[in-house]
Amino acid sequence: MRLPEDVILKEVGPRDGLQNEKVFISTEDKVEWINQLSESGLSYIEVSSFVHPKWIPALSDADEVFSKITRQPGVTYSALVPNAKGTERALKANVDEFAVFMSASDTHNRKNINKSIEETFPVLEEVADEGRKAGKKVRGYVSTVFGCPYDGKVAVSEVKKVCDRLFSMGVYEISLGDTIGIANPKQVDEVLRELVNDFDADRFALHFHDTRGLALANTLAGLNAGITTFDGSTGGLGGCPYAKGASGNAASEDLIFMFEEMGINTGIDFNKFLKAASFIEKALGKPLPGRQLKLLEGRT
């Protein structure tokens, strides 16, 4: 087994975790949560999304959240930026890094952003160009890499095509998403072996969902394949509204615990992170699925 000395955990809970929540979390609570996350040792927090508020009401206060958070040195504060209007808002909010998003399967892409894959590229290229002109790094998300709720299996060749186009427009890193939590460790290994034949492993991150309880196992397969950047969401918040049953991102605190127990440094204070997780759980008013959070609170 090939294990790195260090990994990077990118916290996506404030955006990916909250975007589908039916309960609107107050701006004040979002700001407090993000501030607590900032003090935990995280180096990257995805704060919100500049998608039109009518599409994601839960994140309609993105501008205000960015204006109120206390930014810590060494922490990157990113946001999802979907189009030209979102770019204007993101630049005004002084977002540190842009994130662009699309799918590897055409049907999911149409369901999610109402465009074909080919129609999506020019929109994202404009966002990436404007972001880079303003000195912003641009990160990419590719969903349905390991399977699509509509198209079934997704050929690695299709994933490669999407990655190649995103890299060509200046995206520095692509987060490969298991949108419906369908991946298994053998598949993860096989997909990554093919991708790293064409692209450097350090240009990829992994974004797993725990729908079937395999997120940690798949993370281990990713580590063994040379990936050292992983997305996580506080408490296991999140899911995909266009993929039935795909609730629950990999819980950040579960990832932190696993990495640290394996002797892999995250740079994150586990207890401070759990405090932030408890805070947002109380704000949501419901138990979150993260295992470490359950242990902390004596839940089963």
TrEMBL record:
Keyword annotations of the record: Lyase, Metal-binding
Keyword Nucleotide-binding: no
Similarity comment: family membership: Belongs to the HMG-CoA lyase family.
CDD domains, per database record: DRE_TIM_HMGL (cd07938)
SUPFAM superfamilies documented for this protein: Aldolase
Gene3D superfamilies assigned to the protein according to its UniProt record, in alphabetical order: Aldolase class I (3.20.20.70)
Keyword Lyase set for record: yes
GO molecular function, one term: metal ion binding
Superkingdom in the source lineage: Bacteria
Organism placement in taxonomy: Bacteria, Bacillati, Bacillota, Bacilli, Bacillales
Protein name per Swiss-Prot or TrEMBL: Hydroxymethylglutaryl-CoA lyase
